[in-house]
Amino acid sequence: MIKLTFYGGAQEVTGSCFLLESAQTKILVDCGMWQGGAKDDEKNRAPFDFDPSEVAALFVTHAHLDHIGRVPFLVKNGFKGKIYSTAPTRELSEISLKDALGLLERSGKKETEEKTFFEQKDLDEALKLWSDFNYNQELKIGDFRITARDAGHILGSSIYEIVADGKKIVVTGDLGNPPTPLLRPTYDIKDADYLVMEGIYGNRRHEGKAERRLKLERTIEDTVKAGGVLMVPAFSLERTQELLFELNDLAENGRIPEAPIFVDSPLAIKMTEVYKKYEEYFNKEAEYLISSGDDIFKFPGLRFTLTSLESKSINEAPPPKIIIAGSGMSTGGRILHHERRYLQNPKNTLLTIGFQAAGSLGRRLQEGVKNITIFKEQIPVRAKIVSISGYSAHPDYDGLFRFAENSVDTLKKVFVAPGEPQAALFLVQRLRDYLGIRAAAPKYGDSFELK
Hints:
By secondary structure, the chain is α/β, with parallel strands linked by helices. The protein has 2 domains: about 1-205 and about 395-450, Ribonuclease Z/Hydroxyacylglutathione hydrolase-like (Metallo-beta-lactamase, Chain A, 4-Layer Sandwich), CATH 3.60.15; about 210-390, Rossmann fold, CATH 3.40.50.10890. About 30% of the residues lie in helices and about 20% in strands. It has 14 helices and 22 strands. It has a 7-stranded mixed beta sheet with strand order 6-5-4-3-2-1-22. Helix 4 (about 85-105) runs antiparallel to helix 8.
């Protein structure tokens, strides 16, 4: 008998952390940070509801903070096992965690002795425990045999096939949304007994490839024609790189008018350098362009602003202009400075291209809020707000349904996690109604015996 317990990412989109136990062995898949507000900060600092010292290994699906953000805290609290992921995930995780630590140090509670819930020494120790685990490689940890597959979500992202006691348990982490500009499609798994799968967009459908590209073109054209500023809050990892790939193609083929494009995110710039190192993870189209001599992250008008001084110089460039900056949900980072300056002008546009979590400024802007507060300043929202979900790194409900349907003949149960309650429960009901399989959207702390 195998026991599965959800310690995060359960009826929520952040904090993914799933524990698998046999009689002899405990392994963890992901150890993510909760993101969104003050209550999430308290949850990040709270002790684990399991003993980290008893966990033999941690398998990381990908390098987003909601899947890796508490890894150093796990080490701080006694974990001494091995950490496994692909090489790109390891490198991107190091960059993400260093950046997260810096943000915590700058924004920590000054009245407390400890501003952060982990320190640099905890991150350093975690990196010492971290080993590369390539796609299609099999590893045996106690009673578990684990194989990594390409999730197609971001560079180096993995699905884990975990075999124990004659059962195949598949944990997806976050799945991809093919066709993507850069990455290969998600690996098809057709024989899962138990499936832990994401349901971020479990109740929504994306635009198709042609529709999303046309919508991007028109948004740029309309903003430039109006003499405005196009702001794109973009996640530093994957969204920025895929958007640059798309803009490179549009610019080189004369599909969009000329305007300076600023990438105003030190984190995104560092991560783009990692992307350049791992071209073997790209799909055939991207590999072909690179082999033909096209630098997919460099084209006329593109400028990277690494320092604060360079970032401030963007204000001096007259419109029209395009600004891509973090964070992707407008919860921090340099995008807030641009939103404070430009959201008040009806000539300007804010374009969201990634998931906006409930409670985030990005979600509130999507929902049409007319006044916001940035840096204690009241800002009237007069700019256009445009959303393109087709560039999301997550599949929509049709893609999620197809992924589960591949294993319909063998599936005993599906657990939808992570995902907000409405999205997760919608997908659960759809799987029950149309595939006739058992499905559930677990809550934090829920345990299941996989018999």
